Amino acid sequence: MKKNADRSPKIKALNTLCASVLLGSLIYILVSGVHMAALAMVVTSAVGLATPVVLSGEGFMDIITGLFEAVFEGIAVIFEGIAEIISGFFS
To answer: How many structural domains compose the chain?
Structure first.
């Protein structure tokens, strides 16, 4: 995949949304068990994360590393937003 500076804000927003849905549904599955709705959210968020990566990937390893990169970028943006909100309280 391209470097972070070259990604559009729409792709970053998609990664953030899909990573948060993926984390939320995995936590829901751990807490209350496996339900069809939670599994549907996991599949939907995984497909949402994988689609831009697969379309821009050139090889198998590029697709795999791009998928992990998209997940970690989405999680990082979530924590970045939380830190920004907290820092806004103290400024």
So the answer is: 1
